[in-house]
Amino acid sequence: MPGMALIAAFRNLYPKIQINIEIGSWSAIMAAVVDQRVDVAVLPEVPQDNRFRREPCVQQRVVAICHPVHDLSRESRVSVASLMQYPLVFRTRDSSTQRAVDRAFRAVNLRASPAIIVNTREGMLEAVANRLGVGFVWEHGSSRVDRIAKVAIAEIKAESPEYIFSLAGRRGKLVELFYLARSLSRSADAADILAAP
What we know:
By secondary structure, the protein is α/β, with parallel strands linked by helices. The protein has two domains: about 1-60 and about 160-195, Periplasmic binding protein-like II (D-Maltodextrin-Binding Protein, domain 2); about 60-155, D-Maltodextrin-Binding Protein, domain 2, CATH 3.40.190.10. It is built from seven helices and nine strands, in the order ααββββαβαβαβββαα. The chain has a four-stranded mixed β-sheet with strand order 4-8-3-7. A three-stranded antiparallel β-sheet has the order 1-9-2, sandwiched between helices. Helix 4 (about 95-105) links the parallel strand 5 and strand 6. Helix 1 (about 1-15) packs across helix 6 (about 175-185). It is elongated and about 50 Å long.
């Protein structure tokens, strides 16, 4: 995930600084930033709001995922209508991934009923790896490649930025160093990390 790639770049620059990582849904991470439980975060769909300092770090879109032996794995692209024939694994409504999936189904006037709903990205990956259905993730949302195949969704063409962000007034050495690491991560090494499938 882009956040871990940025943390890797940060750790390469500042190996002696201890980092505590909180992973959660979009709404949980937004709340952690607003409540000042975390100093800096990485998420898609960060509102353009004066409360936040935000800088884009990677462009990505939501893709379908399936087990590598699934029929769908042989396709390079799938339509939302075609996805209706498979058991679907959805995230909970507080997930940015699920909001993108919901928009894609609404755009073609379809309403999908998921077979399974999971509350975390890890739950989604495990459900798909265990052949429980077709799921959805941000294309760079995980570096996992075992028992997962990614397929582009025809109705989700546009990429969205993922942002590094913090509260606008939140300063301090750690926050500034993390933004600095993000800007330095545009070097060839970090670009390779972020561009990896």
